Sequence to fold (576 residues):
Amino acid sequence: MTIIGINAYHADASAAIFVNGQLIAAIEEERFTRVKHWAGFPALSIQFCLQEAGIGFDQVDYFAIGRDPKAKFIKKLLYLAANPSGSIAVIKDRMSNSKKAASIENELAVLSGLPATFFAPKIKQVEHHRSHIASAFFASPFDKAACLSIDGSGDFSTTMTGIGNGNEITILDSVDFPHSVGIFYTAFTQLLGFPHYGDEYKVMGMAPYGEPLYVEQLKKVIQLTGNGLFTLDLSYFRNAAQGVISYGDNNVPVVAPMYNDKLIREFGEPRKAEEPLSQYHKDLAASVQRITETVIFHLLQSLHKRTGLDNVCIAGGVAQNSVANGKITSNTGFKNVYIPSAGHDAGISMGAALYTQHQLVKMPRQPAIMSAYTGSHFSNGQIKELLNSRNIPFTEYADEALFEVLTNCLINGGVVGWFTGKAEFGPRALGGRSIIADPRRIDAKEILNVKIKRRESFRPFAPSILKECVADYFELSEEVPFMEKVFRIKKEKQSLIPAVTHADGTGRLQTVDKNISPRYYALIEAFGKKTGIPILLNTSFNENEPIVNKPEEALNCYLRTNMDMLVMENIVVSAR
Fold:
């Protein structure tokens, strides 16, 4: 049984392939197009998946699409009827987008050379939030768990709760568009001067520099309800019928300003791009983050009370809020939390395939997916061929000698581009496509932000820590394979690793497992033996672009920045 999952004509287009229940490959189209959050048809991702599986289109049993244009169709019509001021152009655009999503067989036909009629019976449309829930539950280690999907919107839902039990997901509740935690967070992200799709993480990164002084004021904007859900006061927001996200011919998602004049009157003028961040901005960010956490915990407390379960699986764009994720076990009754590596919309492809595989076809569950390494990979021979073609000098080392050279570079203040194995699926670099540095250096943040990443100074960097050492450095000790949770660093350890300690004494950790990431583990272990600190500073290998996918992109990023060393598999470039 072979199933390809597809997220198409939606932000973070992607594809994933399962063969006889096993995940073979999963990748985002932006890694190929080099355009962040690319939202077209993921042709290159589909071809990559087939190549990794060693099969052709004719050998695929199902193509699972993480979108169902028919979902909540009546509610969509009623909403549009109740909002006649909505833009006709927007309605036409959404209808056009829905038609594309509903006719994937035509795209597959063009891509494969096979007739569209070959694909039509193989298409399975899976609702957006069901795909999200499936990406978390069916990939989790739990036989039974509560489930939550929460994001901006998809198929006219913004939040969905359920129970996963074996091969079955049962939906309990959903919240309809436009009442959305994602829209709430986006509106304030825009007001704080970050207008681009996906900028919400900047508000999360800025929040520790402020105090949550405006929570009471924000309670007028988003309110908890007695049924364990929430509602927005829509008078603060742009009329969503006038359009939220548009894609255009270039397939780049653009979010319309979600705030309106009332929100501006109560919370201030939108910050201009060149305007410095004031303490008010930081305090507002802290307040938005705090009330978002309150809403998430409210949803989860209600879900826990209703299900009585210890395990919870969470996905959706809001599930990328790692600060909230790190507080779930302390603020709800849940004891175990699973969040996939691609909790955002790229994970829709994997979720749609998993939903089809288990819920529809009833294939048996497989071991939990604890590795995000499902993307592109290259040999030493391919890397040397590239470097020779560009007359770039290099040295090849065996692993032991490589780790000696590399750790010496890090200890002496160097910044290293690290490119090894398969690329990660999801927005986090997890030691496959990472920039690494010494976490003990007070100046490491400044070096990385100013000379390499060229981004806001308040944004933090993450600690990759050996799995066995988490309890020595963090107040909570949980397995965090996908850098999806923020925990407080023990007070006595914070001064030892200042480069990965955020302003509030926390760190967004990645626990590195020897069996999942053997090479990255060995590198951190070698660094730990020399320094006594089994941690490396880890950030994504990119410079205001999608994470590097191929050796050419890694080399180009190295050459245009001030990295001290580039390591691609066993090949080291250090001369410029």
Observations:
- The longest helix spans residues 279-307.
